[in-house]
Amino acid sequence: MPAVQETVERVKAIDVEQYKYGFETTIEMDKAPKGLSEDIVRLISSKKGEPEWMTEWRLEAFRRWQTMREPKWARVNYPPIDYQELYYYAAPKKNPAPKSLDEVDPEILKTYEKLGIPLREQEILAGVEGAGSRVAVDAVFDSVSVVTTFKEELKKAGVIFCSISEAIREYPDLVRKYLGSVVPVSDNFFATLNSAVFTDGSFVYVPEGVRCPMELSTYFRINERNTGQFERTLIIADKGSYVSYLEGCTAPARDENQLHAAVVELIALDDAEIKYSTVQNWYPGDAEGKGGVYNFVTKRGDCRGANSKISWTQVETGSAITWKYPSCILRGDNSRGEFYSIAISNGYQQVDSGTKMIHLGKNTTSRIISKGIAAGRSENTYRGLVSAHRKASGARNFTNCDSLLIGDKCGAHTVPYIESKNASAVFEHEATTSKISDDQMFYCLQRGLDEEEAVALIVNGFVKDVLQQLPMEFAVEAQKLISISLEGSVG
Amino acid sequence: MLQINNLVVEIEGKRILNGLDLTVKAGEVAAIMGPNGSGKSTLSYVIAGKEEYEVLDGEILVDGENILELEPNERAARGVFLAFQYPLEIPGVSTMTFLKAIMNAQRKAREEAELTTPEFMKRVRAAAEKLHIDQEMLRRGLNVGFSGGEKKRMEILQMALLEPRFCILDETDSGLDIDALKIVAEGVNTLRDPARAFLVITHYQRLLNHIVPDTVHVMANGRIVRSGGKELALELEASGYADYREQAA
Ligand SMILES: Nc1ncnc2c1ncn2[C@@H]1O[C@H](COP(=O)(O)OP(=O)(O)O)[C@@H](O)[C@H]1O
Ligand SMILES: [Mg+2]
């Protein structure tokens, strides 16, 4: 309930700055020339000091990508993207891998502070605060991981948490074994592009039997103009381990569109559990629909071991276009996949998001709870696939998709696909669509709430089942974001 | 406290209120009675500020200030409360959450400090008990799955917690059995105060046996056609509204 109050305070504060993260940072950048070619791919690889096998891996992806076409099946519309007009590499200058926060450009630290992640503070507080409430952060600025906190402490527990570039250099065996093993190089147009040009991202390895002692978190920020951001995240939870990971995203407000095409791969071995949460707040474009991030993301988790579990929770409030389907491959017997989603669209945003639960192993279970909220002139589509393969006896899925409409110029759509090749599989699907009525609004206003407060209250009620899935530290932040993104949705 | 002068209101081109005049003083309980369709709910909505009604003429003064240009929440902050004839359901928002949000919203509008959780709980418990509302109900979505009588009691609970200065009760008695009616009437009576005024809208005399009004107004065709003391209600009970219908026709 104090959170509701915070929401209220928050809405009051945002009159002046609609998109509070829309600031730009002035930092000297080291940029590769515009456009994409084998040379650029080689350049990226050499800038990162990568071994030969990695360069080859990228080149293979690039060659593959040249034969592919952009997918068109999603319910999103955008002008053609000229891939030769983008920059594929941009890194803050004087940046040979900072050893500690002191070596990081103060401008960058300031940026992260504005984003609400006081890195410095976190490290200072490290010894003081009780464990559990601390969060280790990997901050990615345009193409480069700027700093990772709590590294040493994690190392003591045996947990590897670093940038993917560092992992390629320091832990090549792990990377070679798992990279591309969940999302193959040729998976889809955007994933293949990412495989060729990914510049940074996070790497996590939790060894057998280890429960990661703190939340791990990555903040991604696009700053440079016309820069594509292609992060690559790889998380491996070895047998019997557990890790909770959170990803946050922002970008400055710009007139032109920014491209973001990330790939996230999760691997859970026997009895392991990965909880992956996202609070996505890319710039959504202005009130007329100009600018904003195009977010084409491939996220997939592989429950490779028996009794493993992968849980995706996402709060999607930003981006002009969202094309995103975090999925689970339930390979191990008795494995479990979960997908909890809040997707909010306002203004001219277009969201096409959902999940895939692929049941391969015996007695695998999955659960999908999706809450779509459409306001303004936005379009919000849930697209989901639940499938059971021949050997997936005893597979069970429960899906619940609710849509809430605010106003009458927006649209919500639900596109569920179900495929079952095993007679013993049981799939349940529930869906509802509701609308905040004028009478409900008047009722709330009569009791003293203003329009923004009333919408925030109703929406927070609508999404609370999913908010509960987020780690505590982020639930409040997510709740604030929800009300910010619905600013101006009524009246 | 409330003064309405020559109020003319239309909805969808249809005239509903026809030059209505009404005065309610501080401390007064005024009853409005009238046949169905005479415009009683319309009057209550227009006072509360519902958007779709078009006010063509007249004014509504609360403590001398014309409130017609104010948003509904601004009117609420000035102490206008309407207990709805048909309270709305808000799924997903627990009654407790809703109560706290509205109490704090009004406190904020009046630049008062937010209630602490223990203080809030104390107030809600005390008020709920008086209205025989159990804790389980407070945890459910607001008005979701509540019976007609429970919804009406929930309206009175909100009124008790918000402590408004000008309370409109629109057919709060409809759908209540006699026991519930007594509970609701008791709830209203304890709020009677020299600084507070009530406008009790009802179709039947029955409620007025329990909430005894100071004045009674008869409404027909969008106007107050007769005013008097509490005995007027009894007279209406005996003779019905037939006279007024004809008069209006
Ligand atoms: N939203 C509306 N649209 C059209 N007519 C309406 C609307 N609301 C009320 N009316 C009409 O206005 C008249 C008065 O209604 P109302 O104020 O509800 O009367 P009462 O509460 O006295 O029964 C009725 O004829 C009713 O049909
Ligand atoms: Mg009525």
From TrEMBL, chain A:
Organism: Chelatococcus sambhunathii
Xref: InterPro entries: Fe-S_cluster_assembly_SufBD, SUF_FeS_clus_asmbl_SufB, SUF_FeS_clus_asmbl_SufBD_core, SUF_FeS_clus_asmbl_SufBD_sf, SufBD_N
Ranges where the SUF system FeS cluster assembly SufBD N-terminal domain occurs: 155-211
PANTHER family, per database record: FES CLUSTER ASSEMBLY PROTEIN SUF, UPF0051 PROTEIN ABCI8, CHLOROPLASTIC-RELATED
Official protein name in the record: FeS assembly protein SufB
Family (UniProt): Belongs to the iron-sulfur cluster assembly SufBD family.
Segments forming domain SUF system FeS cluster assembly SufBD core: 220-462
TrEMBL record, chain B:
InterPro entries: AAA+_ATPase (IPR003593), ABC_transporter-like_ATP-bd (IPR003439), ABC_transporter-like_CS (IPR017871), FeS-cluster_ATPase_SufC (IPR010230), P-loop_NTPase (IPR027417)
SMART domains in UniProt: AAA
CDD domains in UniProt: ABC_FeS_Assembly
Gene3D superfamilies (UniProt xref): P-loop containing nucleotide triphosphate hydrolases
Record's keyword terms, sorted: ATP-binding, Nucleotide-binding
Domain ABC transporter: from-to ranges: 2-246
GO MF assignments: ATP binding; ATP hydrolysis activity
Domain of life: Bacteria
Pfam families: ABC_tran
Similarity comment: family membership: Belongs to the ABC transporter superfamily. Ycf16 family.
PANTHER family: ABC TRANSPORTER I FAMILY MEMBER 6, CHLOROPLASTIC (PTHR43204)
Record protein name field: Fe-S cluster assembly ATPase SufC
Biological source species: Chelatococcus daeguensis
